[in-house]
Specification:
It contains four helices and two strands, in the order H-H-E-E-H-H. By secondary structure, it is mainly α. 4% of the residues are buried.
């Protein structure tokens, strides 16, 4: 049972999802501040109120001797604006660039260009060996020429 849980947690998708949730939570605070500090007062001025969250009130009369309730439709408008802002930013900051990268990669594959594949560890070691051999041969050659 623990092995299955470990395999689940160590999958790349779970880690990516966790990072996305943390970044999303941090980004949400930025959007909330933008909406509450800039857009709500601007829209509140449009509706002649201090805050959009307290604007467009509708009072529901009391039923059977209870208290009257006030519904603030401005809070709903603020939430819709916040949602639209998040969707716009996510689309233009994430979706558009990722789609552009995918199209670029597809064009490269279609044209036959090789992908930028880094050299393997073995290839790097062979290059180091060859450079060391050249440096050793060069220093010994220079030493032979320096001796009379």
């Amino acid at each position: 049972m623990l092995k299955g849980f470990r395999d689940f947690v160590l999958r790349g998708n779970v880690i990516d999802l966790a990072v996305a949730v943390v970044i999303g939570a941090a980004f949400t605070s930025i959007v909330n501040t933008l909406v509450t500090a800039i857009l709500n007062p601007a829209l509140g001025a449009l509706f002649n109120t201090a805050s959009l969250a307290k604007s467009l009130p509708v009072t529901v009369p009391a039923i059977a001797g209870g208290h009257a309730a006030t519904i603030y439709f401005g809070a709903l408008v603020a939430a819709i604006i916040q949602f639209v802002l998040v969707a716009v930013v996510v689309y233009f900051a994430l979706v558009v660039p990722i789609n552009a990268v995918r199209k670029y990669q597809e064009r490269r594959r279609a044209s036959g260009e090789p992908d930028d594949v880094p050299p393997t560890e073995l290839e790097v070691l062979e290059q180091i060996r060859d450079l060391l051999a050249t440096a050793t041969d060069g220093s010994s050659t220079a030493a032979r020429h320096a001796e009379p």
